[in-house]
Amino acid sequence: MQVNVVKSKIHRVKVTGADLNYIGSITIDEDLMDAANIVQGERVQIVNNNNGERLETYAIPGPRGSGEITLNGAAARRVAKDDILILITYTWMDIEEAKQFKPSLVFPNEADNTLT
């Protein structure tokens, strides 16, 4: 049996931008992507702590060390600059493997989204 489990989470990052005229996606500082084991193009669930919105899009890398968290395309309408988000990815795995699996959890500095 396969189960869908949390693969990684970036907990409480601040939105740095919203670009309605971009094709789509979420731009994430590549340092944060690496720390959370998120790859370019991976599906990301976005939970907005400020307004309760939940949406899904895909990750694209932003400049390393920039702290960038930008929602692009239609998703830009669901956030405001400085909103606090939780970013979550999931994976399918065998239930026995899932019982032993430990997700990558990242808790960046909320002021500037840098790793502490």
UniProtKB/TrEMBL annotation:
InterPro entries: Asp_de-COase-like_dom_sf, Asp_decarbox. GO terms for biological process: alanine biosynthetic process; pantothenate biosynthetic process. The active site is at residues 25, 58. Gene3D superfamilies: 2.40.40.20. This is Aspartate 1-decarboxylase. Pathway: Cofactor biosynthesis; (R)-pantothenate biosynthesis; beta-alanine from L-aspartate: step 1/1. Its cofactor is pyruvate. It holds the Pfam family Asp_decarbox. It is found in: Cytoplasm. GO terms for cellular component: cytosol. SUPFAM superfamilies: ADC-like (SSF50692). Is synthesized initially as an inactive proenzyme, which is activated by self-cleavage at a specific serine bond to produce a beta-subunit with a hydroxyl group at its C-terminus and an alpha-subunit with a pyruvoyl group at its N-terminus. The gene is panD. Binds 1 pyruvoyl group covalently per subunit. Catalyzes the pyruvoyl-dependent decarboxylation of aspartate to produce beta-alanine. Its main location: cytoplasm. Belongs to the PanD family. One of its GO terms (molecular function) is aspartate 1-decarboxylase activity. Its EC number is 4.1.1.11. The modification Pyruvic acid (Ser) is found at residue 25. It catalyses: L-aspartate + H(+) = beta-alanine + CO2. Substrate binds at residues 57, 73-75. Keywords: Autocatalytic cleavage, Cytoplasm, Decarboxylase, Lyase, Pantothenate biosynthesis, Pyruvate, Schiff base, Zymogen. Heterooctamer of four alpha and four beta subunits. It is an enzyme of class 4 (lyase).
